[in-house]
Specification:
mainly beta; five-stranded mixed beta sheet; single chain; Jelly Rolls
Amino acid sequence: MITFYEKTALTGGGGTALDGIDGAALNDSDIAFVQNGGSFYEYLLVAASGAAANSPYVIAPATNPGTKRWILQSPYLYNISGYATGLSYQLTAGQAAITGAPSKTIDIPGTYLLMAQLQVDYVGATFAAVRNATFNIYRTNNTPGNVPNAQQAFKTAIITTQTYTAEILSIPPVLYTTANNNDVLTLYGGIDVIPSAGSIQVIAASLMAQRIR
């Protein structure tokens, strides 16, 4: 007879964790569902597996595991996101890290859908000519650099000592694949020529990574 289990953690033992179920009580083809934060997992118990534990893909019971293993069956939702408001980061000539913007660690290898959005304001700014402001999702480690195709730009207005929202800018969704479990992503921005008076500032920023496989 197949038994269904519902848990709220993958590992750590105890009554809420998948690995906390005593292996002696498990039977081949048992099914478990784990809702952990923003992630949902479906597992099948394979009694003769004997595979090495590798969360979240293979979970071994903490007690009496034998060769019984929980094997991940379905794609699961795993979100990494951050949102920051109240920023006053002034764009500089050339690309630089946006102070205060979200910085997130991709801690599970896989393929992710990356998205980002920024609010950029003129603050008493003067531009005598149209200038180009550019923003990127940037990896800060494991060969630092811009994430390919994760870039968006806009052209400034010609203005004199004006203060208002210049742009609500979205970096288009882009696929990002990594074999690492510690890639750190953040947001970079800059402008080709700074204003002759005042500043152009990032006021708010968000960054999200949605694991899709």
